[in-house]
């Protein structure tokens, strides 16, 4: 009986926290998860990582960096508990990239293949997750758009450097949009930026306009809106 109640309590916590997260109530979702009666559960740990990372986006330094590192720790623990679920690989990939970015260009470059490996594994486990397609698109776009001095660092670390093109990035961003239309303002922004890089200003304007007109509900919407507005002025 007690075990059934605990399972019910865990299920209710997960359902409620997901609802809060979807409503952009990241602090409430985080607080709820941290009070869980089963804090060591896999389903709790990756959700804490997700909520804390999203909270970090609106937090100033140095607290922001602390939150990213703590998020990465939760994601690492979640992956150790269950490496057969897409969410574990997805959030480990996202937070490995974020955490390694805090440790300097060389560390971030060193982790590129691991970031890619875990996101591709997430998509193998769940090919219908739009956000994972978006993140993989970001990976390819980042490689295609790498400044020359970072390319030199990549070349010194890898015998065969990881490669990425704007075409590969576009394929991923389009896949994300097809999977879940209008799901994310940042995907509209990146579609616009990628089309611009590919010299298709008509399509770039279409998606940048969508991003610039987004209703701001969170930090990502704010960033997408501001960047899209700036890029539209240059088209």
TrEMBL record:
PANTHER family: REGULATOR OF MICROTUBULE DYNAMICS PROTEIN, REGULATOR OF MICROTUBULE DYNAMICS PROTEIN 1
Keywords, sorted A to Z: Cytoplasm, Cytoskeleton, Repeat, TPR repeat
Entry's Gene Ontology molecular function annotations: microtubule binding
Record InterPro entries: RMD1-3_a_helical_rpt, TPR-like_helical_dom_sf
Subunit structure of this chain's protein: Interacts with microtubules.
Cellular compartments per GO CC: mitochondrion; mitotic spindle pole; spindle microtubule
Protein name per its UniProtKB record: Regulator of microtubule dynamics protein 1
Species: Aedes aegypti (Yellowfever mosquito)
Lineage of the organism: Eukaryota, Metazoa, Ecdysozoa, Arthropoda, Hexapoda
């Amino acid at each position: 009986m007690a075990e059934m109640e605990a399972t019910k309590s865990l299920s209710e916590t997960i359902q409620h926290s997901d609802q809060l997260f979807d409503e952009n109530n990241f602090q409430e979702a985080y607080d709820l998860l941290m009070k869980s009666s089963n804090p060591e559960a896999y389903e709790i740990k990756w959700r804490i990582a997700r909520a804390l990372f999203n909270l970090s986006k609106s937090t100033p330094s140095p607290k922001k960096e602390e939150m990213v590192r703590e998020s990465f720790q939760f994601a690492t623990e979640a992956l150790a508990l269950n490496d057969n679920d897409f969410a574990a690989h997805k959030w480990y990939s996202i937070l490995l990239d974020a955490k390694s970015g805090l440790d300097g260009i060389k560390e971030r470059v060193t982790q590129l293949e691991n970031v890619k490996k875990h996101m591709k594994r997430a998509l193998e486990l769940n090919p219908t997750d739009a956000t994972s397609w978006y993140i993989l698109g970001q990976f390819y776009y980042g490689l295609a758009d790498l400044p020359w001095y970072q390319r030199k660092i990549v070349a010194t670390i890898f015998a065969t450097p990881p490669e990425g093109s704007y075409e590969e990035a576009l394929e991923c961003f389009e896949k994300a949009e097809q999977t879940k239309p209008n799901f994310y303002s940042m995907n509209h922004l990146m579609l616009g930026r990628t089309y611009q890089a590919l010299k298709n200003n008509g399509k770039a304007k279409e998606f940048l306009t969508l991003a610039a007109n987004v209703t701001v509900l969170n930090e990502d919407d704010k960033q997408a809106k501001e960047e899209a507005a700036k890029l539209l002025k240059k088209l």
